[in-house]
Each structure stands twice: as structure tokens, then as C-alpha cells.
């Protein structure tokens, strides 16, 4: 007695019924609880990201860990913040330097603003 299509992915194993919306919602809520996720409007993507990036695990997401390392070394460890306003000012100036004036190797040694301008020029031509 054949159940389902002849080319079932796992022959010899019983077919599994898909999750109902209620079951999916309960699994999503349980995963949010396990991840200690506090955002009111969480999505499956944001939840997956919270499980994928564990602190101190650089193999999980190398780009985020590299950025965090640069921020820590060049800004946070290099400065004594006198107040929250001082911290905001120094971190914002570092962020502007990082995003606007510093060349990035991933952008062919261009600054992000130069790369964006070059990209806009190539889009206009096409």
C-alpha cells in the first residue's frame, strides 16, 4: 500500500503533517522566550539572527565580529567617557569617520560615499 507520491523524499518513513498556524506560533513564541527576545515586533529573521550571533563566537558572523572589534579597539577602549552626552558625541564622530571618510577594503579601497557615487554613476549609464 503506497502512501503519497512515489518519489517521497524519505522512503520507508511516514509522512509528517505540516505545522498548523497555531503550532507554528507556539514554536515561535517558545523560541523567542529561549532567546530572551524582548522586541515587541519580532520577525522570524530577527529571531534567527539572535540565535545565529552568539557573543564571543567570531565564526558565527565574521563581519559583525570584525566591526565590533574595530569599534571596541578604536573608540570604546581608546576613550574615557565623561558623561552619556560625551559618549554619544565621540561614538557618533567615530561612526561618521568610519562611514564617510575611511576607505574600506571591501569597497575597492574607496570610502562608502565615493563608492555610492560611483555606483550611482554606473546605474545612470545603464
UniProtKB/TrEMBL annotation:
| S-adenosyl-L-methionine is among the record's keywords | no
Any Pfam family from its record, for instance, is: rve_3
Q: Which superkingdom, per the lineage?
A: Bacteria
Organism whose genome encodes this protein: Ruegeria spongiae
Instruction: List the Gene3D superfamilies.
Output: Intergrase catalytic core
Keyword set includes Protease: no
Record keywords, A-Z: DNA recombination
Q: Where is the Integrase catalytic domain?
A: 52-112
The protein in question is named Integrase core domain-containing protein
Amino acid at each position: 500500500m503506497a502512501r503519497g507520491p512515489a518519489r517521497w523524499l524519505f522512503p520507508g518513513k511516514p509522512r509528517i503533517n505540516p505545522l498548523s498556524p497555531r503550532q507554528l506560533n507556539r514554536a515561535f513564541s517558545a523560541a523567542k522566550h529561549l532567546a530572551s527576545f524582548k522586541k515587541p515586533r519580532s520577525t522570524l529573521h530577527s529571531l534567527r539572527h539572535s540565535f545565529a550571533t552568539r557573543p564571543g563566537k567570531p565564526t558565527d558572523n565574521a563581519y559583525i565580529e570584525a566591526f565590533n572589534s574595530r569599534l571596541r579597539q578604536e573608540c570604546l577602549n581608546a576613550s574615557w567617557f565623561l558623561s552619556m552626552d560625551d559618549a554619544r558625541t565621540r561614538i557618533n564622530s567615530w561612526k561618521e569617520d568610519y562611514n564617510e571618510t575611511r576607505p574600506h577594503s571591501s569597497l575597492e579601497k574607496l570610502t562608502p560615499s565615493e563608492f555610492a557615487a560611483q555606483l550611482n554613476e554606473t546605474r545612470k549609464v545603464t
